[in-house]
Amino acid sequence: MKKRSVRVLGAAMALFMGVVLTACGSSSDSAGSAKYAATETAADYGVYEQPAMAEEMADYDTASGSSTEQVQDTSRKLIKTVNLETETEDLEQTVALVEQKVRGLGGYIESSNIYNGTSYSGRSSRSASITARIPAANLDAFVDVVEGNTNITRKSVNVDDITLTYVDIESKRNSLRTEEKRLLEILESAETVEDLITVEDKLADVRYELESIESQIRSYDNLVDYSTVYLNIDEVVKFTPVEKESAFKRMGKGFMENLSDVGEAIVEFFVWFVSHIPGLLVFVLIILIIVLIIRKISVKSKAKKAARMQAAYQASMQSQPVNTSKESPVQKQEPEKGNDGNK
Hints:
- By secondary structure, the chain is an alpha+beta fold.
- Among the domains are: 77-242, no CATH class; 247-277.
- The chain is built from eleven helices and five strands.
- Helix 5 (91-104) runs antiparallel to helix 6 and helix 7 (163-189) runs antiparallel to helix 8.
- The radius of gyration is 53 Å and the shape is elongated.
């Protein structure tokens, strides 16, 4: 027991003397160096960011008033996206109306494409594709205008709640700002070149990460403040019916549509024929020239063939011997008969 008491007393005396000597020998310069060395050592072991995180957690858990302010400052972050497929009888008028309404509601056109073409049936097929950014508060008003002036064939609304993600990113940004401020304070008290280089490298990493997070927050703010509307507009002759029609009505409508298609096909044929008359005349003229050339060649060939046949006939006639006897060929060929009539 005596030995243990002596040991405890000796340790207490040594600790007391060390504290007294440290307090008496410290100065303002050595205090700054000790502060930086302690901070750098803690940072090397991963304890550097704990005070800031501890302060934030303490502020969040202790005071109910501060936590209430945080909930009030952070509203719901909703990203709304609307897809609309519509039909119109006048594409140019509808596009002009949409662009005017977008500007009137404080939005802007992100992209716009207009297509002019012809369908397989020969009809003019025009359409427009517009991507509009509308302030979230005026989104319903814009959709109402489009529905009131066009025939909606398809509509879809998507809402993405990013509140929790946004709060996490903001918390990380605040932590990085606190760390940046603390590094600037340490940078002012650094004395050696090595200390300056170490702190500046850490400060550069923190600022790079902070800029990336702030850019992401700005992107989220833009998506939340301005809803995105993808609008496809097709120019049609007749609107697509919304209600389902009866069988007889569909048969009658189909018959009339087919009859109309046949009439349009006949009209299109005459339009094509009349519009292609110059080309057809040139084609017919070329065919006539080719026929005349072939006929002329055929006539010449026949004439040459007839001339050759006549020349051959004349040559064969001239090559036969001339008969100078007075007896006729028939009498010369008759056989001689005996007295009894036998050969």
